[in-house]
């Protein structure tokens, strides 16, 4: 698939050895095309967080390959992996994890500063904040905005490096129902507007409505094919 932005090939994650070995993931394979909006769903302990860690290059598989934007990440050293992660992946978490002593715009620009490519970052951050309706909040400190606004800032921060994939771990889990609905709408809007690939771990499948693909994990295995194609 020429336009694949992510491919997992027979990925296992094993903890322990011999008779005590536990498979957190077993023979997981699927592809994601550029611009798709995909969900990873499963109950607690199903392996979905481990899968997110594999895709997010926060951990290495015991066996198998994780190929991102055409690069076999198993060939990268730890230093290369860290640099690659920062340039190719954006992260959104259940809690916004903003730096309270930084302003909204400083939080958004932070990944660019870490990457050492801060040229034009401020203008790009302003443009993104305008896109999510927060350009009037950019000079406020992060601890002076609402939870829903903080999650929008976190989404903007995840986009500032123009990543190949944005990974979101329960991005609505810490929000009230109205803020959660607004966040889902925003993510889908950005997916269409920016042709941005989103991979979202959630326990609340219905909340996201129609999506391009769903991978359901149970006991470390995909149990609902690679796809639930609805769009």
Observed structural traits:
4-stranded antiparallel sheet; Rossmann fold; disordered C terminus
Q: What is the string of SSEs from the N terminus onward?
A: EEEHEEHEHHHEHEEE
The averaged pLDDT comes out at 89
Main beta sheet, described?
A: 6 strands, mixed
Please give the CATH class: Alpha Beta
The CATH topology corresponds to Rossmann fold
Number of helices: 6
CATH architectural grouping: 3-Layer(aba) Sandwich
Tally the beta strands.
10
Uncertain runs are: 226-231
Radius of gyration from the alpha-carbon trace, in angstroms: 18 Å
CA-based shape: globular
Distance between the termini: 18 Å
The percent range for strand residues is 25-35%
Main sheet strand line-up: 6-7-8-3-9-10
**CATH level-4 homologous superfamily:** P-loop containing nucleotide triphosphate hydrolases
The percent of residues in helical segments reads: 25-40%
Provide the number of structural domains: 1
